[in-house]
Amino acid sequence: MDHVVRVLETEDQFTVASEESVLMAAIRQGVQLLHDCTEGGCGTCRIRLMEGCVRYEEYPLALSPEDEEEGFALACQARPESDLLISTERPMEPCSAPERYTATIQSVRNVGRDVVHLTLALPGAEQLVYRPGQYLNVLLGDGNKRSFSMASVPNGKTVDLHIRRVRDGHFTAGQLPRLGPGDRLDVELPHGLFCCRKEDFRPLLMVATGTGLAPIKSILESLMDDPDCPPVSLYWGMRTEDDLYLHDEIQSWAERLCDFQYVPVLSRPGPGWQGRQGYVQEVAAEDIGDFSEHAIYMCGSPKMISSARKLFVENGANPGFIYADAFNFQHTLVPAE
After folding, report:
1. Secondary structure of residue 241 in the 3-state scheme
2. What residues in the chain have per-residue pLDDT under 70?
3. Which residues form the signal peptide (predicted)?
């Protein structure tokens, strides 16, 4: 049986067919709803049910039972069981529409045991506007693509990437080792909805594992020297001390961010490590305790993000102020770098 969905803020109306999700029906009929991963992992498509009810074929990672009790749903997984009146998330700052560029490699350098720092020059991108935290697609020429978060703020000239080398990776093992300054790559950007929500006016907790640091670095650089920058805490989880490829640079950020706290956390520390160890989300919970006043940004392994979301909500975090990089969920669901 078909059901009608009405959007409170825009007065848009569309029909959802039997077994179709709210999001897929909206996309099919040209109705704009915020979304990213489409797999229930990021929470970007979060809506509030003002009237009606929905069901899920599989319970989505990014929706807690507490969220559901408060009337929230994830449009990408929700199947209506009645007509719906929904309220959508607030809009974000505008950015450029995704566009294809032929990028020129400016530099390639190893910054860690298995991480490559790639700087791309973007001729013709002087007017490009992207939100710090977004990602780009590298187009491989055979119909495949690889997605990497941008680790730099928009400047109309260059983009930095942190690329983890993957054994047998189609791009990172096959093409990346042969690239050097002057070589070209076809890229498409910007993509994604992971970005800073300055209107939250809350202390920021940034939690990353691995190269999930890249979009968080972009966000934090956009806040440097900003008189309205809120207090910032960054917890970065890695295996060993050698994996902390930006450790020294991050420590210098305290000079340009408000009340900045940086806590590296190692899961497999060596005998000389004097810092914190264990799981990064558990260390953050141990330090902060009550997350009710924080806006939380997470990027890294899906296992960490799922565990952290549950832990933080149990300790007072408002799910409406938890943001996760959906790109990582996509990369877990399909073979990628």
Report:
1. helix
2. 89-92, 326-337
3. none
